């Protein structure tokens, strides 16, 4: 097959669409939904509304970034919501030593959870879904023990600034999420680590035989995912100005996985779409917002979300089966 | 009358015309060889015949009636069975259950009649040379035996047509004989067989008719006995016959210049792994190609993997350039200069979803990066170098490796190994399942690399390749070294004798 024979052949439409849908369908859906809202939803473009949407989506984006990396290795991390709770529970405990100390402690908790997850997956050889299920259950339990099961109010201004403050007209939360998106996109595209991660997802035995330290890479991936989750956890505390280990990050693993899948990252590994993941999170947020604005019941919102997930997975399957 | 026939079919994929006006007819009781290089359209034609693909044009006729197989199931119900290179059965279920899957015998109450199923399974499989306990899990059987189960299953489903895609690629010689016996039976029953193989010997032994595909077109069809072997190869390759004659069937040129007293670049001593390897030892000097001979299951692949750090060993040492590897892992082996090409290219070699570029660069990323950031410029340099040197045919470095032909996939894999600048190359079946043209190229590459001073360990089930390619052959049996052929003794006869001597002993065991 020569390159010119590829170039001169006119597009085979169906095949084009099949290749295009999982990669860019999410962007098209966002554009359509925004156009619809601009036309039919009063005050949709009001800054106050956009601001709320962005603030609400930020934590999902942050968690989904880590999830995308894990899914890129053909794994999954169910423990992210519990890690958020753990980070949230630790914040009030150490805030007395200063904001920096409290943040560091909750990040370290993230590192430790990631090490446990990564070790179980890479060294012990457990299935990712089972390995992370342990801390999905245990992590929140631990968080509740640490917090004593109580809701604690946070009065630290620096921390509150992270959650509710503005910088150059945009919420700090949005800045932080955007920065993390850039960092993760850079990791995936430009670093040795990123390439190895994709190779592991694409064919682990082959990557191992190529002399790549597969276990180390895998453990690092789970650590990054957990650290991102603990960042999301401490930001959640900063935003609502209280720490509630029983509520923070509840069910976020599902939102994160949804964002990743809708964004075009295949669950079979070997490929990570970072911007697609962000778009996936935005789309789901937009769907919810649209339905609420038009006074539709939450049950129908959920059904629309389900439909989007099915479309995304179906599109990915079509691409795979060629 | 044709049993199964396609007339003027075309099949197109984005960017490739896989089949272009192909006509093919299979008569009852005929063993019809389907040959061609990888990418010639064999697999596509088979998939059209079995309902996996719908042709874009042309007609499919079955027993002289136009048919349309919407799914593989439709084709199977009509009596067309396919046996693939890889066994498509359920490894965790018993042999008998696999054999009867979906058609289990039932008692009057509608319950599974296990007694009858086991009895019948045993009877059926004995005809295929499989004498194992049918209650065993299928996955615990040798690959050859699994393939026989697959074949028995295919024939049981009232097959009128059996399509065999490289059925012997994982069979031992003895199993090949059993398979040929079965094929003759089928032939006598009037069942039509489409036989796909790269092994010319087999084709001439078992096939009546041949159809040769090249670039999606039929270039020849007719009686196989009337077609000279060299003509078949030249038709397949589209090369001049005199060139084929001049260059021979393999790409090897002969002996390698090795100083007999040179210090070995690879030394393996006392390699032992429970039940699998027993005290295996040999040495490879720079510029030398050492073959590992033996039957399937003799421990050749395990030896290769153990040296490469990918197979657990209980004791024994591996030394590269006189330096012993401490606790070998794949990471340490690669760092020490050992490059391993695994037997199973798809499962352990290529990363199909990644591009040619990523696949080639995979093992050397640290060298092509600074502070953990990869340099596209350096990667492109290496990738271009090896794509040129190995003549990798891809639309570009960005093409997915999974979309390349088998031969080009293998070249990408070799490029990855060579990019690590190894001192020792471990090659496990480097030319299995790749077309004749790529095969010759890979073989001459092995020669060339040895010429540059690499130590090469070569495993091949193709006796011709092993004999012509290797300077010495170490023969294994049951995970132990049983002999070594050197110099003038490196002949097919000597190899077969050594293996056969081993096989006699084996037969007297509890086989």
Reconstruct the topology from this structure.
The complex is a heterodimer of chains A (322) and B (511).
Chain A: H1 3-8, H2 13-40, H3 47-72, H4 80-94, H5 99-124, H6 128-147, E1 152-153, H7 157-164, E2 166-167, E3 170-171, H8 172-190, H9 192-202, H10 204-209, H11 214-240, E4 242-243, H12 252-262, H13 274-293, H14 298-320
Antiparallel strand pairs in A: 1-4, 2-3
Helix pairs in contact in A: 2-13, 2-14, 3-8, 3-11, 3-12, 3-13, 4-5, 4-6, 4-11, 5-6, 5-11, 7-11, 8-9, 9-11, 12-13, 13-14
Chain B: E1 4-13, E2 16-26, E3 31-35, H1 42-49, E4 57-62, E5 65-66, H2 72-77, E6 80-83, H3 95-100, H4 114-126, H5 143-156, E7 161-165, H6 173-188, E8 192-196, H7 200-206, E9 209-214, E10 217-223, H8 229-237, H9 241-247, E11 266-273, E12 277-284, E13 289-293, H10 300-307, E14 315-320, E15 323-324, H11 330-336, E16 338-341, H12 345-349, H13 356-361, E17 369-370, E18 373-374, H14 376-389, H15 406-419, E19 424-428, H16 436-451, E20 455-459, H17 463-469, E21 472-477, E22 480-486, H18 492-507
Helix pairs in contact in B: 14-15
